[in-house]
Amino acid sequence: MTDSDPKSFFNRLANLLYSKPETQAEKRKELLETLRLAKSEGLIDSDALSMIEGVFQVSELTVKDILLPRAQIDWVDIQDPIDVIVPSVIEAAHSRFPVFEGNRDNVIGILLAKDLLRQAVDKDFNLRDWLRPAVFIPDSKPLGVLLKDFRSNRNHLAIVVDEYGGVAGIVTIEDVLEQIVGDIEDEHDIDDEADNIVSTSDGKFRIRGMTSLEQINEVLGTDFIDEDIDTIAGLVIQQVGRVPKRGDIIEIGELVCEIQRADPRQIHILVIHKKPSPSL
């Protein structure tokens, strides 16, 4: 029986299920290798493999890995007049907004954009009356647990707090699902270059794979030029000759690139930092 024989896949799967690898990590790695074999033999397609790998990624990530930092949140200040709030909500084009009072660590609720329609017909409209309760979660919460909570509580957005109780950011159910199925674009999504590169508290950069080399050069002070490649993901793939997997670390010049999210077809998210300058 050859490796291309579909029976080889089922033999490997049976061996996996009935053998006892030393650790869960080894068992997970072997299962993924078996599923990749199934894909190469045509038993599952690339989309199915990508989603299965996404499920494994969700089980390994925490909220801190995917949250939208507080500096990038579109806030609503309860003290602002309604004629200031409405245009800002229209411009941001989200369905939900965290509302604060006094300072941004004091989140008092969640505003649904659709509820603002009521102010057009209700002369006594009071924004406070229409705020939904905010859900607060620690940044260390596993994504798998969060997804279960989102489903059971029918929440779509949570406020993420750090170890000191301050607001670190927000996370939505869409953010979690995108770890499984890839980017979910809706009619309001736009390519905002400002969101392509996000600096983290430890001096690293969380970067979208689609970020242009021009923007990488501008923000990180590099000088990558390639007539055939436009994005940082393309540069990394060219460097290693394949689409890397989550956890792979690739060095390109002075940059150290860690793959945070990828599927068999493309790199979605990288965490990049510069090598320390050699001491004189």
For the structure shown, list the relevant keywords:
280 residues, 4-stranded mixed sheet, alpha+beta, CBS-domain, 3 domains, 5-stranded antiparallel sheet, Uridine Diphospho-n-acetylenolpyruvylglucosamine Reductase, domain 3, 8 helices
What's the layout of helices and strands?
Blueprint: H1 6-18, H2 24-40, H3 46-60, E1 68-69, E2 76-77, H4 82-92, E3 96-101, E4 103-112, E5 136-138, H5 143-153, E6 157-161, E7 167-172, H6 173-181, E8 197-199, E9 205-208, H7 213-220, H8 232-240, E10 249-252, E11 255-262, E12 267-274
Parallel strand pairs: 2-3, 5-6
Antiparallel strand pairs: 1-7, 3-4, 6-7, 8-9, 9-12, 10-11, 11-12
Describe this structure in words.
The protein is α+β, with helices and mostly antiparallel strands. The chain has 3 domains: 6-44; 64-181, CBS-domain (Roll); 193-274, Uridine Diphospho-n-acetylenolpyruvylglucosamine Reductase, domain 3, CATH 3.30.465. The protein has helices spanning 6-18, 24-40, 46-60, 82-92, 143-153, 173-181, 213-220, 232-240, and strands spanning 68-69, 76-77, 96-101, 103-112, 136-138, 157-161, 167-172, 197-199, 205-208, 249-252, 255-262, 267-274. The strands form 3 sheets. A 5-stranded antiparallel sheet has the order 8-9-12-11-10. Strand 5, helix 5 and strand 6 form a beta-alpha-beta unit. The protein is globular and about 70 Å long. The mean pLDDT is 84.
